[in-house]
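As a warm-up, study this chain.
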Amino acid sequence: MITDRINALRGMPLAVAKVRASVITHDLAELHRSRIANPGAGQLDAYREKAAEAKAFLALTSSQQGSAVEADWPWLASDIDVARDLGGTEPSLADVATEVSTAQAAWSSAHIMIERSRRVANAGAEAATTAEDVALAVEAMQDGLKGVSA
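Now compare it with the structure written out below.
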């Protein structure tokens, strides 16, 4: 458990606590990222591809220069195919692009907060003069991330 690892920092020599704090802040950031998006590099790549396609679709169609043909937008069309396969109401490409774009903006905001919190904790741990201060820097990150969501 992360809390136990943070508490263990208090009994370590300062140099060791600083190194361990960096590992803990990384793990804590990953834990919170996995609560926002499915973990795994492959899934992250899929999110990025779909978000890039949604952004391009919305930019091109808003300027009347883009195609609304599903074959031209395979990542967006995949959501339409799922609805079609399940017999549900089929969203339009624009509906899917808007939904993906909105989700990506929320996801990005949450990830920025996580990264900022991680960097602040690492800087605080590095500047610490006692193992207790190292632990407090990491605890502040843990507490600050409790309300982060996308």
